[in-house]
């Protein structure tokens, strides 16, 4: 184990989904080693194990899921070299450890175990009642800017392995389950759960979820980025007149979002926040701001403006209706299929403890998330561009146009009219931008300027 822990200490920080890139790794410990098939010395073919790995860093301890393949030395299948973790000994036998999610032979076993509803000690594989799962399909890892690792099986399923683990039911599984029957969601077909120690007791924890694969899907971020590119390629043209205007899609997306919010409010508990709870919410936003300012000092000049927006929100006279929401809503979480928009990834902000993410919140949090995403889509292509100053007005115009269209679609689709709740909306937008500053500092330091520039622009508005 010690050897694998040492290998993981070097390998984990290089992974896209590793959340602690900004800080050194102090210790790595395998908390649970859950064999789910083969791999013993003398056994045929590579072994497969689910590891729950604890990583200590100065800012705290996180748990990650590693799906570990163990191949005999020199027997790592061609094409898998890039996912090797390193050489080690397992009960005296030499093995090559690798990220098994890239190995279709091993992931096929996971699919098979889900289809059978198998139990492997503290690991349980389940299908959703009424959903038979096809097996024998080959998997391929989806690439992209992701917090987790998703595989497509044939043209049928997506299996998402949750990388950063929090004990308990993952909201992605919970909310997708609650949205069964909605044309705007992809219902789960199955999942994998493992018992994880928390507070001295084993807690069933979702480690992976199987959903239907939406074959005709195009990522909302890709569509929006294409529209922005068209606009930047036609200097002097407004976003309504450039080739790939996105506003009609933004409006439909607003309506789809409202429909999902309504469905979640029907299926799961709702509440209304009293003034003291509202104060608590605003204080939590201020605490996040303090944390972010501590880590990213460039935020400091704007802290006063942000804090007073949170205070205004806390003093709002009207009670705030709350319900379960998406929680980390942006253009990369929605796909356009030939039947319309579908919302994905109801996990919430992966850096926030699950208990907090499962708390009812205002649907305006999601509206604010998508508005931030329009701003990201408009700004990110300007980073490093020699024409940044020239294109900045077009960026603003694109973000404003799509913002208005989304809000109009959301209100027309039966959601709270965002224009009538501007104080709350502004606080949620600022809070999201502060989260993004932390997120970018940890994951993509070269993108840090995007939320920082937005905060600067919002603060000067
Ligand atoms: N069911 C699905 N059908 C088609 N594409 C999907 C599906 N689920 C995810 N994707 C694609 O994978 C990307 C990442 O999925 P997501 O659930 O957001 O993962 P993460 O939590 O890692 O960000 C999505 O933006 C989408 O392009
Ligand atoms: O991995 P998730 O999709 O769960 O979400 C995390 O990663 C997102 C980036 O991939 C991050 O989103 C931020 O960048 C997006 C562009 O890549 C932009 O559209 C979003 O508005 C912006 O928040 C998200 O915050 C993070 O939780």
Give the full name of the CATH homologous superfamily of the largest domain. Answer: Aminoglycoside phosphotransferase (APH), C-terminal lobe
User: Which overall shape is indicated by the principal axes computed on the Cα atoms?
Assistant: globular
CATH structural fold name of the largest domain: Aminoglycoside 3'-phosphotransferase, Chain: A, domain 2
* Count of spatially separate domains: 3
What fraction strand?
15-25%
If strands are numbered along the chain, what order do they take across the biggest sheet?
A: 6-7-12-13-10-9-8
Mean residue pLDDT: 93
Catalytic activity: D-maltose + ATP = alpha-maltose 1-phosphate + ADP + H(+)
InterPro entries: Aminoglycoside_PTrfase, Kinase-like_dom_sf, Mak_N_cap
Protein name: Maltokinase
EC number: 2.7.1.175
Q: Top keywords for this entry?
A:
39% helix, binds ligand LMANGFYV, Aminoglycoside 3'-phosphotransferase, Chain: A, domain 2, alpha+beta, seven-stranded antiparallel sheet, 461 residues, 12 helices, 24% strand, globular, binds adenosine-5'-diphosphate
What does this structure look like?
The chain is α+β, with helices and mostly antiparallel strands and 461 residues long. It contains 12 helices and 18 strands. The chain folds into 3 domains: 92 residues; 109 residues; 242 residues, Aminoglycoside 3'-phosphotransferase, Chain: A, domain 2. Helix 9 packs antiparallel against helix 10. The longest helix has 25 residues. The protein is globular. It starts with a helix and ends with a helix. The site of the ligand O=P(O)(O)O[C@H]1O[C@H](CO)[C@@H](O[C@H]2O[C@H](CO)[C@@H](O)[C@H](O)[C@H]2O)[C@H](O)[C@H]1O has 18 residues, from helix 9 and helix 11. The ligand O=P(O)(O)O[C@H]1O[C@H](CO)[C@@H](O[C@H]2O[C@H](CO)[C@@H](O)[C@H](O)[C@H]2O)[C@H](O)[C@H]1O binds next to helix 9 and helix 11. This is Maltokinase. Monomer. Belongs to the aminoglycoside phosphotransferase family. Pathway: Glycan biosynthesis; glycogen biosynthesis.
């Amino acid at each position: 184990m010690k050897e694998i822990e040492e290998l993981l200490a070097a390998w984990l920080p290089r992974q896209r989904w590793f959340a602690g890139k900004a800080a050194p790794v102090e210790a790595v410990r395998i908390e649970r080693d859950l064999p789910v098939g083969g791999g013993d010395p003398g056994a045929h073919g590579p072994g497969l194990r689910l590891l729950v790995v604890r990583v200590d860093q100065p800012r705290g301890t996180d748990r990650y899921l590693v799906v570990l393949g163990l191949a005999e030395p020199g027997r790592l299948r061609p094409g898998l070299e890039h996912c090797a973790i390193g050489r080690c000994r397992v009960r005296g036998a030499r093995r090559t450890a690798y990220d098994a999610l890239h190995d279709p032979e091993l992931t096929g076993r996971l699919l098979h175990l889900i289809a059978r509803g198998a139990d492997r000690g503290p690991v349980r594989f389940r299908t959703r009642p009424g959903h038979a799962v096809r097996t024998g399909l080959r998997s391929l890892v989806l690439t992209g800017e992701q917090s987790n690792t998703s595989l497509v099986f044939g043209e049928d399923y997506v299996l998402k392995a949750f990388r950063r683990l929090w004990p308990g039911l993952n909201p992605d599984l919970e909310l997708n389950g609650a949205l069964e029957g909605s044309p705007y969601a992809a219902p789960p077909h199955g999942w994998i759960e493992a018992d994880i120690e928390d507070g001295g007791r084993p807690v069933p924890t979702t480690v992976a979820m199987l959903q239907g694969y939406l074959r005709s899907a195009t990522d909302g971020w890709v569509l929006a980025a294409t529209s922005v590119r068209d606009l930047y390629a036609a200097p002097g043209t407004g976003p309504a007149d450039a080739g790939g205007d996105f506003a009609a899609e933004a409006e439909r997306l607003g309506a789809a979002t409202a429909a999902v919010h309504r469905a979640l409010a029907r299926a799961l508990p709702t509440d209304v926040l009293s003034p003291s709870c509202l104060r608590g919410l605003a204080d939590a936003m201020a605490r996040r701001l303090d944390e972010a300012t501590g880590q990213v000092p460039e935020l400091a000049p704007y802290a006063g403006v942000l804090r007073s927006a949170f205070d205004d929100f806390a003093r709002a006279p009207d009670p705030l209706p709350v319900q379960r929401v998406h929680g980390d809503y942006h253009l990369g979480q929605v796909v356009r299929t030939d039947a319309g928009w579908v919302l994905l990834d109801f996990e919430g902000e992966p850096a926030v403890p699950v208990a907090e993410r499962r708390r009812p919140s205002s649907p305006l949090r999601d509206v604010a998330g998508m508005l931030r995403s329009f701003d990201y889509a408009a700004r990110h292509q300007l980073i490093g561009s020699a024409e940044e100053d020239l294109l900045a007005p077009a960026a603003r115009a694109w973000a404003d146009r799509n913002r208005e269209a989304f809000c109009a679609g959301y209100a027309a689709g039966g959601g709270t009219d965002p224009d009538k709740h501007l104080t709350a909306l502004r606080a949620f937008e600022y809070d999201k931008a502060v989260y993004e500053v932390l997120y970018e500092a940890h994951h993509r330091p070269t993108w840090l300027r995007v939320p920082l520039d937005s905060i600067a622009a919002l603060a000067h508005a």
